[in-house]
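Re: weekly structure request thread

Next one in the queue (177 aa):
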Amino acid sequence: MENKNDLLGHFWKVTYAHTIAYFIAGVLAMSFMNYEAIWATEIMSGFYRPIDSLIVGLGGTILQIPRGILIALFILPLRKVFFEEKLGLLKLGLIVFGFSVISTIGAVCSSYEGFIYLKLPLEIHLMGYFECILYISLFIGILFIAQKFAHKKVVTVLAIVLTVLIALMGIINLLQY
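Done, posted below.
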């Protein structure tokens, strides 16, 4: 029988790794890719909400916590492969890239289907890879650190502090509306 603490640890580790990675990748992508201007263009404004809308502010912060829990749930059956086997995290990164970026079911920007069905310019499709690859690298890197240094309290404290700060940014954003 599975140890309850192991399961809770799995959910916590995946959730904070996702939340922190998503936030950092999003902030860097917004800063370097000028999403505010791109999302406001005629072709993209039909797809994207304004960058300063409430849901976008919540989506980059506190709403990533439930998403992290869902990711932990989805990879739960394969956690031994990803967290115990040699190169397991690399396997997880490749699977996340494959299913989340390249082989999505719907036609979304930067996906295989998106290249076929969307009328977006090639540069818009290619631009999405920066954020995707950055997110996956951070996600896998944070999971690696969490696994390698699980016995270090500083990792746990840093994960708690960063996750709480990201959640608080979402709450502050909500209170400003």
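The CA atoms of residues 45 and 86 lie 44 Å apart. The chain has one domain: 4-176.
Next request, please.
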